[in-house]
Design brief:
This protein has 492 residues and is of the alpha/beta class. The protein is built from 15 helices and 18 strands. The chain has one domain: TIM Barrel. Helix 2 packs parallel to helix 4 and helix 6 runs parallel beside helix 8.
């Protein structure tokens, strides 16, 4: 009743939410440095009418918590010991592109940035945790966006390849699992962050997000597909002992028809196509979906892949598919879809009675992760890797210097049981489960500390105050038992 031998247990974080030190040791700003959460509609940008370009202009009245985050840049060694103390054999984080190439378009890398990750990966390996490293986790250098328009400009492909070739060469042997673009299939609902796209000559310079054109988004899609294939090719050539995968936000996979109305059934399929399959199909199957032609025609999009590009995409598919899953939703033709960082929200599912505590109150659907694993494995027949699943709670430390986070234990336990069922009963090849995020970090969606995911508490608050001291929650020792027993403690 345990998980397969070699199953990867651990946790996942991102550089932009954990490290802080946003301008230290040569690092320059990235896209998330100008946002108070990726759901923000007001990026810290101002249009320069003389240069006809956007420039960084932060709002002095806002708290950009990611600039300091939880000071992981200086505290990672003690934090990684806490992670290893839970029995982790794997740990996921990202490399901040701007630490390696501060503006993104330099020829030579920043040695201080390379050295930092050398030391971090050495520490992980010494502690027995295999590094799982995301090449780009919402961290496109700001200069590439304001100067070139981001990924809508084909020049970024060369800048990107200089970056990834540097990493594959430098960390050969230290990193055995690479992931390309984090949740890149969210680029049409979060083009600035997930797609690194900004229209250079907007119709309304005062509205940088609203002015981003559909053509620019699809140009970015085109360039990212090419860049992903080139990255897979380069990884296989430079470090053939490692694996490289893509990373998708896969909650939209668990979009159920609200009822058996054929229009709702078809609408649920269309939601899956437009939110995950359109990106995962090229990465995993090497094909650009034909149903996109209808979308391009409707929106008057001019996009064309050369025969050479299509061949490149076909021949350089990923080794594995990693994904995040937080919740499911239903599709109802009479209800508008809404989206936040947890996924799509439509009509409330009457069969889901379990909900996370307010203020977020997500409906909890552990079987949704089993359903997602089955759909993705049936479609792609690749090893699957859960690299994000977790629940954020509004928590404060009690008089006993701990947090009784029983709901987190319940949430994680029920999801892991369904992962086991997918493996044992459905035959899914799932290589690991990495909880998001095992230590409190700045929330991606809202840019605050109030929404806490960790097994480890960090003393920092929305106003920026706090000692940054770490403390263990009740869930820490519970998850330790799960990891160290290879799941047996949960399944017996």
């Amino acid at each position: 009743m345990s998980f397969p031998k070699g199953f990867l247990w651990g946790g996942a974080i991102a550089a932009n939410q954990y490290e802080g030190a946003w301008l230290e040791d040569g690092k320059a700003p990235n896209v998330t440095d100008i946002l108070v959460g990726i759901q923000s509609k007001e990026p810290g940008l101002a249009w320069n009418y003389d240069t006809k370009k956007y420039e960084m202009k932060l709002d002095p009245n806002k708290a950009y918590l990611s600039h300091e985050a939880v000071d992981g840049y200086h505290r990672y060694k003690e934090d990684l010991k806490l992670m290893a103390g839970m029995g982790f054999n794997s740990f996921r984080t990202s490399i901040a592109w701007g630490r390696i190439f501060p503006n993104g378009d330099e020829k030579e890398p920043n040695e201080a940035g390379l050295k930092f990750y050398d030391d971090m990966f050495d520490t992980m390996n010494e502690l027995g945790m295999a590094p799982v490293i995301t090449l780009s986790h919402y961290e496109t250098p700001l200069h590439l966006i304001t100067e070139y328009g981001g990924w809508s400009n084909a020049k970024l492909i060369d800048f990107w390849m200089n970056y990834v070739n540097t990493l594959f060469t430098r960390y050969k042997g230290k990193v055995k699992v690479w992931l390309t673009f984090n949740e890149v299939n969210a680029m049409f609902r979060m083009p600035l962050v997930a797609g690194g796209v900004l229209t250079i000559n907007p119709k309304d310079p005062e509205d940088p997000l609203g002015s981003t054109t559909e053509q620019d988004k699809w140009d970015a899609y085109h360039n990212i597909l090419v860049a992903n294939a080139l990255t897979v090719k380069a990884c296989h050539e430079l470090d053939p002992e490692s694996q490289i995968g893509c990373m998708m936000t896969a909650s939209s996979t668990a979009t159920y028809p609200y009822d058996c109305d054929p229009e709702n059934v078809m609408g649920a399929l269309d939601t899956q196509r437009r939110n995950i399959f359109y990106m995962a199909d090229p990465f995993c199957l090497g094909i650009v979906p034909t149903y996109l032609k209808k979308i391009w025609k409707e929106d008057n999009i001019q996009i064309s892949f050369t025969d050479e590009e299509l061949k490149l995409i076909k021949e350089n598919t990923v080794d594995l598919l990693s994904f995040s899953y937080y919740r499911s939703t239903t599709y109802d033709k009479n209800t508008n879809l809404k989206v936040d960082t947890g996924g799509i929200v439509c009509k409330e599912n009457p069969f889901l009675k379990d909900k996370a505590p307010k203020p977020w109150g997500w409906a909890v659907d552990p079987m949704g992760i089993r359903y997602t694993l089955n759909v993705l494995y049936d479609r792609y027949h690749l090893p699957l890797f859960i690299v994000e699943n977790g629940v954020g709670l509004d928590e404060n430390i009690d008089e006993n210097n701990t947090i009784e986070d029983d709901f987190r234990i319940h949430y994680v336990g029920e999801h892991i049981k369904n992962v086991h069922a997918a493996i044992e009963e459905d035959g899914v090849d799932c290589m690991g489960y990495l909880y998001w995020g095992p230590i409190d970090v700045v929330s991606a969606g809202t840019g605050e500390m109030k929404k806490r995911y960790g097994f480890v508490y960090v003393d920092r608050f929305n106003d920026g105050t706090g000692t940054l001291e770490r403390a263990l929650k009740k869930s820490y020792n519970w998850y330790k038992e799960v990891c160290e027993s290879n799941g047996e403690s949960l399944l017996k």
